[in-house]
Design a protein that fits this description.
Blueprint lengths: L2 H30 L5 H25 L6
Helix pairs in contact: 1-2
Length: about 70
Amino acid sequence: MDQPDFEQMRRKLAELKSEHRDLDDVIAQLSDSPPFDQLQLQRLKKRKLSLKDQILKLEDALLPDIIA
């Protein structure tokens, strides 16, 4: 993997983590102020889970495979 791809992946990872944290805050605020839209809450949680999956894939791609 060459350096520009590595840097691009690191930037994307940082963006995804930031969005994940932001969604966490939005979900907490929405949950704390009933009544809230259950469908909207479910969509936000689904998006957050999708982001988590993308984050894990990028982290795996960035970490070198080390055979112990």
